[in-house]
Amino acid sequence: MAVNAAATRLEEQWRDILSVHARTMCEIDRVLHPHRLGASDFEVLDILATASPEEGDQCRVQNLAGRVHLSQSALSRLIGRLEKDGLVERSVCVEDRRGVSVALTRKGRDLHAEVLPLQRDVLARMLG
């Protein structure tokens, strides 16, 4: 009986985590919508804006895929939209011509700086 109670408690905790995540993502989507961004768009811009000095101003798409919760094809479409909007630019990796790097443009950096406080406010409200 104790095992069932423990399993039920774990399931409830998991569902609570999923619920907080879903509500937070929806709220981020809502506040970023006027800026023509969604939560996943912001996540990619944020990763690029906060890249370590070793990474430079570019990030391999393969490395981005490991940090955002999107399939490879969904990430490629998202990057394509961001590129079309002039927020990022893609280039072939210098070290490995098979790889693709992504970098923020000036417009992307400016938009990221503008919406960063909105996203952080949502996180503070939803998770604080």
How would you sum up this structure in a few lines?
The chain has about 130 residues and is mainly alpha-helical.
Task: Provide structural commentary.
Helix 1 crosses helix 5 (106-127) and helix 2 (39-49) packs across helix 5 (106-127). This protein is globular. The protein contains 5 helices and 3 strands. The two termini are 35 Å apart. The protein has a 3-stranded antiparallel β-sheet with strand order 1-3-2. The protein has a single domain (2-127), classed as Orthogonal Bundle (Arc Repressor Mutant, subunit A), CATH 1.10.10.10. 64% of the residues lie in helices and 10% in strands. It has 128 residues and is mainly alpha-helical. A hairpin with a 7-residue loop joins strand 2 and strand 3 (100-104).
Number of helices: 5
Broad structural category: mainly alpha
In total, the number of domains comes to 1
Number of strands: 3
Biggest sheet: strands side by side, in what order?
A: 1-3-2
Name the CATH homologous superfamily. Winged helix-like DNA-binding domain superfamily/Winged helix DNA-binding domain
According to CATH, the fold-level topology is Arc Repressor Mutant, subunit A
What is the strand content? 5-15%
Q: What is the helix/strand order?
A: HHEHHEEH
Q: What would you call the shape? A: globular
Radius of gyration: 18 Å
Distance between the termini: 35 Å
CATH class: Mainly Alpha
Percent of residues in helices comes to 55-70%
Q: Pick out the low-confidence regions.
A: none
- Largest sheet: number of strands, sense, barrel closure: 3 strands, antiparallel
How would you state the average pLDDT, rounded? 89
